[in-house]
Amino acid sequence: MASYPILPEKLLLISLKMYFTPDQTLTYLRDLLNPTNEIVHPANKDKLLLALIPDFLTIWPCAQILKEYETSLTTTTTTTGTPNSTPPFLLGAQDCFWESQGAYTGEVSPSSIRALGCTIVELGHAERRAIFNETDDQTARKAAATCAQHMVPLVCIGEVTAPGPIASQAVGQAVTECAVLVRAVLAAIPDDAPVIFAYEPVWAIGKPKPAGVDHVAAVVQGIRAVIGSRSGTARVLYGGSAGPGLWGAGGLGHAVDGMFLGRFAHQIEGVREVVREVEETLALYASQVLCP
Ligand SMILES: O=C(CO)COP(=O)(O)O
Of 17, 63, 253, 280, whose CB count within 10 A is highest? Predict the structure, then answer.
């Protein structure tokens, strides 16, 4: 029987949006998986998960590359996980339709996305909301359809307006804006379904710099309070011009469960730098548990 994927402690998800050609996408994925590029240290594979979210057209060839990669792991290591455990690298889609079959020309079925090997479906991105008028209700329906296929909805939330001079007001306003979609999605999906919320302030997407750490940390705390307790895992990531330098000392490592990366992870070096920063904090937290 199908089960939901298990989400590890930290997640780094990379969206390619519509930036890459098919060739670039496949080269990039091969580079991410190439052991000589030393992206995720093998000792951290259970704690830190990477996922690629390419365009629809390249999901299938990416899935083939990932299949070869997983086969190579099973032949080179003895610890390959249980049949239901989450694979070492996940594939996602950038959207889906809320129905799984029918006369819906141009739409993409969540069951087809699942059949091709995806585990994550990104939903409600700010660009889809602004350009294609996607509504909270539509995003929530897509999240339900995603869970029905035992995939994980990656729901993008975030306030539209940049913070004004009063920090507490800006945080309150941001949480209020995010809460509407958080509640709609949680009401639409089973309580035990895993879900990821990517907090992406709309004003910080596609910019030279991300949102400030204090603002993000306070808003994410508010979002976690809105999520409350549920039986399924809920992870909250930060996205919006995220990249190297954002996670480590004085950064987001203490506040979020990972990052949703765009442009600043579109080179392998950027991914490696971000992964190193996350791995350093994994080691730090582990030593804090051992030596309180
Ligand atoms: O929207 C984003 C991820 O989907 C963030 O993109 P950028 O990091 O390029 O701003």
Answer: 253
113: exposed, middle or buried (Cβ count in 10 Å: 0-12, 13-18, 19+): buried
Pocket test for ligand 1, best of 11, 12, 16, 17 (most atoms within 8 A of CB): 17
Q: Is residue 3 part of a domain?
A: no
In a domain, 172, yes or no: yes
Q: What CATH number does the domain containing 267 carry? A: 3.20.20.70
Residue 88 main-chain phi, psi, to 5 deg = -70, -10
The answer as to whether 5 is a domain residue is no
| 171 occurs within a structural domain | yes
Span 189-221, pLDDT tens digits: 999 999 999 999 999 999 999 999 999 999 999
Active site residue 107: no
Number of domains in the chain: 1
Mark the ranges of the chain whose per-residue pLDDT is less than 70. Answer: 1, 75-86, 284-292
Range of the domain at 136: 10-290
Pocket test for ligand 1, best of 12, 120, 261 (most atoms within 8 A of CB): 261
Q: Are 98 and 83 in contact (CB under 8 A)?
A: no
